[in-house]
Design a protein that fits this description.
- Chain B: Belongs to the class-I pyridoxal-phosphate-dependent aminotransferase family.
- The complex is a heterodimer of chains A (413) and B (436).
- Chain A has 413 residues and is of the alpha/beta class.
- Chain A is built from 13 helices and 13 strands.
- In chain A, the strands form 3 sheets. A 7-stranded mixed sheet of chain A has the order 3-8-7-6-1-4-5, sandwiched between helices. In chain A, strands 9-10-13-12 form a 4-stranded antiparallel sheet, covered by helices on one side. In chain A, strands 2-11 form a two-stranded parallel sheet.
- In chain A, helix 2 crosses helix 9, helix 4 packs across helix 8 and helix 10 runs parallel beside helix 13.
- With 436 residues, chain B is α/β, with parallel strands linked by helices.
- Chain B has a 7-stranded mixed sheet with strand order 2-10-9-8-7-3-4, sandwiched between helices.
- In chain B, a hairpin with a 6-residue loop joins strand 11 and strand 12.
- Chain B is globular.
- In chain B, 56% of the residues are buried.
- The chains are: A alpha/beta (413), B alpha/beta (436).
- Chains A and B meet through helix 1, helix 2, helix 4, helix 5 and helix 8 of A and helix 2, helix 4, helix 5, helix 9 and helix 10 of B.
Chain lengths: 413, 436
């Protein structure tokens, strides 16, 4: 149940299986008596130093490992996206600062794109903010709107940064486990509660284009009574397979966006100009052909659905039980049937899936991410038999994964 | 929504004076000598580096390492290791950020706690104050003051100094950090070794972290030397040195910055970084890495951009000083940076009642008048001061001289400009504004 203490926020209209921060670890003080106290970190980052990505990216960095862990596409972005950026690199005026809250041509393109979904005009200057990735939008929204002592509802499993960001704002995360996929009805329940308890909603929709046959993405901000209380976050990285551009955006009513803009002007001030211009141009290309199968918003999910199906089949063939995703580019699988002997793995305090992934990386040269990384301390046990695989990978990577998995299954059966 | 929306950490920092002036400048057809960015291109080798980064390996379109693209952290470690006389480890002593602005934010958030005091030297780059406040800190201001000068002589930024006794009195048991900016924006002062030694000894005595914003480190004139406080004895272990690719390579739109410092401090910035933006864009980092690699090969030679740029910009500075003098203004000769400030006292006494709000500092009203009536934009220096001290600075306005296309006295330049010196880049190059 939701608690109506202070101000509540729900996070993640659609579960995003990407990251989490491990359970708190108290930072040690510097041992030098001379420097000990002053060089201590600010309290806001206490216990937030460890990070699953730093740990697991290192493990998977070995080039002999087939990396299906981090959500990093190894396919090429669409040709026209690369071309736009190349063209822009030659334009001098784009090497200097642009507008802090978003490069004008980009916010205009975003406004034009999203007006189709919101059925109202979106003011490009007041209702859109361009940020350093969707990660930056999450940060700006939480820092701008969430106070010490506020409660924030986080649905488990969750993109791992939600918890540390909420804690850094001095707020208290309240975890609610997910029981089913978000149907329109489920979103309506959330919307009704947000309205009833006068709660804000931060909706992370970075994978909004990646929905598979028979499914539809619903924007909670389009539900009655929700526009005025919702920040909707999107990502260029996930939209155009350019995670390294680190551009994201927040869309919402001006009485909320203005606070994210205040955070922006006191944090990074502006995002990179040439990348924003290239993104604007790429968006215009696809905005003009939204119903065309060539539009990347249509072609990418088609391409990924094939990869998804291939992964599902592969994982089943070795006795892993995958949960077929309706969207996104990750697939989680139950590894318990394999009953792998992990007794010789060090660090027996770690959840099973951490040990399993480390074992699999070392012995099978295949990496994934443990799903308990996306859980709070109390729910880790519920998910410790699940690992997450990323399938936005080129065919040769999936071929290599297939080789490994087939060899593995021959050993077992 | 019936509840108060914004978090309390935004109290007092939501207003941004730039927004108003930028808006004014965009509305009128003005010669914009206000904002601090070049109106000429980055050098050819930097532009080529960016082109290479965006058209080469397509995997550069994806995430790189969170704390910095490896070739960039490697070259920064090597390049600055030599300059700072330190063994700099690319993984432990370097963090790449979204501009120097992002570096400043990360440092304040990682280290400044509720109630901590941060010493800020006035005039200051305006973000230091709101960043301190957003971290719950208490800004403690100490002003640079001009020494009395001979009549008729133009002031130099070097004559603006801190009173050592006054500076010492600002340190308390709650002082967590001191933020230093050299070369200074807006004044253009380059702190001398002796001045830095004073700051250093106080930081050590009171066990304070020194955050040093050195974005203009290459832009020093008249044979002035930039000194990094981190090179002084006892300072590396308590100093965060911040730099900017935007200012270094005249590419402010790339938004790549960095912090160099001891692991004991950087580890906290890394924690903050991984919980705020996590990664910086890859390709701009690749371009900066390649640009530094080029500069490392040319370091100290006449072909180095870090040698050519200050030489060319010094000429721009000198032209601007002449132009301003010719219209009755009294510029303070800057030793470094992109900026100079100019005394408008004569205008203040001749036209004291310019339109504006009742408590609006004179310099802001003057700038608005100047935009409207003279088609020229500058930035009021009271923006760079604490509210209680605005009166000390309300008869100064700041001009940026990293400009070739616009010049004071009205009208934009025509298209043809003299050829730039070799290696400075295509197009106009930084040949500067002429007199009136």
């Amino acid at each position: 149940m939701f608690l109506a203490r202070g101000r509540l926020c729900t996070l993640g209209s659609r579960p995003k299986f990407l990251k989490t921060i491990c359970a708190s670890k108290i930072l040690g003080l510097s041992t030098s008596a001379k420097m000990s106290l002053k060089f201590k970190n600010a309290k806001r980052i206490e216990g937030l130093d460890s990070n699953v990505w730093i740990e697991f990216t290192k493990l998977a960095a070995d080039p002999s490992v087939v990396n299906l862990g981090q959500g990093l596409p190894d396919i090429s972005p669409p040709v026209y996206v690369k071309e736009e950026l190349s063209k822009i690199a030659a334009i001098d005026s784009l090497n200097q600062y642009t507008r802090g809250f978003g490069h004008p041509s980009l916010v205009k393109a975003l406004s034009c794109l999203y007006e189709k979904f919101y059925q109202n005009q979106i003011n490009p200057n007041k209702e859109i903010l361009v940020t350093v990735g969707a990660y930056g939008s999450l940060f700006n929204a939480i820092q701008g709107l969430i106070d010490e002592g506020d409660e924030v509802i986080v649905i488990v499993p969750f993109y791992d940064c939600y918890e540390p960001m909420v804690r850094m704002a001095g707020a208290i995360p309240v975890f609610i486990p997910l029981r089913s996929v978000y149907t329109k009805e489920e979103l309506q329940v959330i919307a009704d509660l947000c309205i009833k308890y006068d709660t804000l909603c931060i909706s992370d929709e970075v994978y909004e284009w990646l929905v598979y046959t028979g499914n539809k993405h619903f924007k909670i901000a389009t539900f009655p009574g929700m526009w005025e209380r919702t920040i909707t976050i999107g990502s260029a990285g996930k939209t155009f397979s350019v995670t390294g551009w680190k551009l994201g955006w927040s869309i919402g009513p001006k009485h909320l966006i203005k606070h994210l803009q205040t955070v922006q002007q006191n944090t990074v001030y502006t995002c990179a100009t040439p990348l924003q211009e290239a993104l604007a141009q790429a968006l215009w290309i696809d905005i003009k052909r939204m119903d065309d199968p060539e539009c990347y918003f249509n072609s990418l999910p088609k391409e990924l659905e094939v990869k998804r199906n291939r992964m599902v089949h592969l994982l089943e063939s070795v006795g892993l039980k995958p949960i077929v995703p309706d969207g996104g580019y990750f697939i989680i699988a139950d590894v318990s049937l394999l009953d792998t002997d992990l007794s010789d793995m060090k660090n027996s305090n770690e959840p099973y899936d951490y040990k399993f992934v480390k074992w699999m990386t070392k012995n099978k040269k295949l990496s994934a991410i443990p799903v308990s990384a996306f859980c709070n301390a109390e729910t880790k046990l519920q998910f410790e038999k699940f690992v997450r695989f990323c399938f936005i990978k080129k065919d040769s990577t999936l071929d290599a994964a297939e080789e490994i998995i087939k060899a593995w299954s021959r050993l077992k059966f | 929504m019936t509840k108060r929306l914004q978090a309390r950490r935004l109290d007092g920092i939501d207003h941004n004076p730039w927004v108003e002036f930028v808006k004014l400048a965009s509305e009128a057809d003005v010669v914009n000598l206000g904002q601090g960015f070049p109106d000429f291109p980055p050098p050819d080798f930097a532009v080529e580096a960016f082109q290479h980064a965006v058209s080469g390996d397509f995997m550069l379109n994806q995430y790189t390492k969170a704390f910095g693209y490896p070739p960039l952290t490697k070259i920064l470690a090597s390049f600055f290791g030599k300059l700072l006389g330190q063994d700099i480890d690319p993984l432990k002593n370097v963090l790449v950020t979204v501009g120097a602005y992002g570096a400043l934010f990360t440092a304040f958030q990682a280290l400044v706690d509720e109630g901590d005091e941060v010493i800020i030297i006035e005039p200051f780059f305006d973000c230091y104050e709101p960043m301190t406040l957003m971290a719950g800190g208490r800004p403690v201001f100490v002003s640079l003051k001009p020494s009395p000068n001979q009549d008729g002589e133009l002031d130099s930024s070097s004559s603006w100094q801190l009173d050592p006794t006054e500076l010492a009195s600002k340190f308390t048991s709650r002082t967590k950090a001191l933020i230093l900016n050299t070369p200074n924006n807006p004044l253009g002062k380059v702190f001398s070794r002796a001045e830095l030694e004073l700051v250093a000894s106080l930081c050590q005595q009171h066990d304070v972290v020194c955050i040093t914003d050195e974005v203009y480190q290459w832009l020093v004139y008249d044979g002035c030397q930039h000194v990094s406080i981190a090179t002084l004895p006892g300072m590396w272990e308590r100093t965060l040195t911040i730099g900017s690719a935007g200012k270094t390579f005249s590419a402010t739109g790339w938004k790549v910055g960095w912090v160099l410092g001891p692991d004991s401090l950087l580890k906290h910035l890394r924690t903050m970084h991984q919980n705020s933006i996590f990664h910086c864009p890859t390709q701009a980092q690749a371009a900066v890495a390649q640009s530094f690699e080029r500069e490392q090969l040319h370091f100290g030679q006449p072909s180095s951009y870090f040698v050519q740029l200050p030489q060319a910009i010094q000429r721009c500075r000198d032209h601007m000083i002449q132009s301003l003098k010719s219209v009755g203004l009294r510029p303070v000769i800057p030793q470094g940076s992109y900026f100079l400030i100019t005394d408008i006292s004569e205008f203040k006494s001749k036209m004291p009642n310019l339109p504006g709000a009742a408590d609006e500092p004179y310099d802001r009203r003057f700038v608005k008048w100047m935009i409207k009536n003279k088609g020229l934009m500058a930035i009021p220096v009271s923006i760079f001061c604490s509210v209680p001290h605005q009166e000390l600075f309300d008869h100064y306005i700041r001009f940026c001289f990293m400009k070739v296309k616009d010049r004071p006295g009205g009208g934009k330049t025509s298209s043809s400009l003299p050829m730039p010196p070799a290696g400075m880049g295509r197009g106009a190059g930084p040949i500067c504004v002429g007199a009136g």
